[in-house]
Write a structure and sequence with these properties.
alpha+beta; BirA Bifunctional Protein, domain 2; two-stranded antiparallel sheet; seven-stranded mixed beta sheet
């Protein structure tokens, strides 16, 4: 019996040491230590042995069982390690390593403040049933001017000088072309917002950039009036600035709205009593808006005797500058990390 035990031990240990895979090890384990394994059978039959040998054989069997178990375990570890080594050389990325960020050396990315406010505004308008539309940055003269009631030789074109391409197209000066494209595509009633990048041929200073961002908005339905416009604008500003704001409308001229307004908001810095930000007036100019001009509705194939609407154009750079007290518009495209990490 003792010889048999020695033999099982020797054979198993040798086989385990030369095993090449975890599956092979499992086979060996089952053959020796499994329910019908060679060692298990011996251990189970200990009771049949004469009492004189039972003790020594029992002890020996248990020792061998332990040795085999330990050998199996250490060989399994070895195999696992070599397969990891193999992975390190065969795979270009080790997903099990902790990221450099976990040790504090990697910088995480973030959204540009313009994107942040754009997404915020999109959410606000989506919740009010507006659809988000996109439009091309390189536009035709028709969509940027003509269909917005700004014919050639109209003086309003001077206010929005831009970059022209050699084939007669231009970089859009505002997001208002999205209004026209929206009307062409959709039937009234409609509610749309169109965020995007716009361009002007300007010399730059603290409050002028050649490239900036707007969100256009338009609502067309039966009997839309200035009161609808006021409600939506107040709701928008209340949600952006997270408090109730007072607004006022002053006349403003844009060929594509009639009447047209400049919308002012009470100065949030001084609360309306007058300070340097609002130039002692208590009000700051926020956005231009108005009721859509009948000629523009007609360009969009909408009958002005049946439908009316309001439109507005929100300057995102200005809005963020007001929200955070930023004093130079050129920071936005500077790519300066010292500016960007603050948002
Ligand atoms: N498109 C105008 C601008 O950029 C803003 C505007 C939009 C005014 C909609 C009125 C209505 O100056």
């Amino acid at each position: 019996m003792e010889n048999k035990l020695e033999e099982i031990k020797k054979q198993t240990v040798d086989a385990v040491r030369s095993a090449k895979t975890a599956d092979e090890l499992e086979d060996l384990r089952v053959r020796v230590l499994g329910r019908k394994g060679s060692l298990t059978i011996i251990l189970r039959s200990l009771g049949d042995l004469p009492p004189e040998t039972r003790g020594t054989i029992g002890k020996k069997s248990n020792e061998i069982k332990k040795i085999i178990e330990e050998t199996l375990e250490s060989r399994l570890n070895e195999l696992n390690e070599t397969s990891l080594d193999g992975l390190v050389t065969s795979e270009w990325i080790d997903v099990t390593l902790s990221s450099p960020g976990a040790t504090g050396t990697a910088k995480t990315g973030r959204l540009h403040p313009i994107s942040q406010i754009q997404y915020e505004i999109e959410d606000i308008f989506t919740s009010m049933g507006f659809e988000i539309l996109d439009g091309p940055e390189a536009e035709t003269e028709y969509y940027n001017f003509e269909a917005l009631n700004i014919p050639k030789h109209h003086p309003a074109r001077d206010m929005q000088d831009t970059f022209w391409t050699e084939d007669g197209n231009l970089l859009r000066t505002h997001t208002s072309p999205i209004q026209v494209r929206g009307m062409e595509k959709m039937k009234p009633p409609l509610r749309i917002v169109g965020p995007g990048r716009v361009f002007r041929y300007e010399s730059t200073d603290a409050s002028h950039e050649n490239t900036f961002y707007q969100v256009e908005g338009m609502m067309i339905d039966r009997d839309i009036s200035v009161s609808h416009l006021i409600y939506v604008m107040k709701e928008l500003l209340r949600r952006i600035f997270k408090r109730d704001v007072k607004i006022r409308l002053r006349p403003g001229y844009f060929p594509f709205v009639e009447p047209g307004f400049e919308l002012d908001m009470n100065c949030l810095i001084c609360g309306g009593t007058g300070c340097s930000v609002c130039k002692q007036s208590g009000w700051v100019e926020v956005l231009p808006c108005g009721l859509v001009h009948p000629a523009v509705l007609r360009y969009g194939n909408i009958d002005p005797s049946q439908w009316s609407g309001f439109a507005f154009g929100l300057g995102l750079n200005r809005l963020i500058m007001m929200k955070y007290g930023i004093n130079d518009i050129r920071h936005f495209l500077s790519g300066d990390e010292r500016f960007l990490v603050q948002f």
